[in-house]
Amino acid sequence: MTLKDLILQKRSCRRFYEKETISLDTLKDCIDLARLTASSGNLQPLKYIVSVRKEINDIIFPHLAWAGYLTDWDGPQSGERPPSYIIVLADKNIHFPIDCDHGISAQTITLAATEKGLSTCILSAIDRRNLRQALNIDNRYEILLVIAIGRCREKRILEEVKNDGSIEYWRDEQGQHHVPKRSLNEIIVHAYY
Question: What is the pLDDT of residues 145-157, one digit of tens each?
Answer without folding.
Answer: 999 999 999 998 8
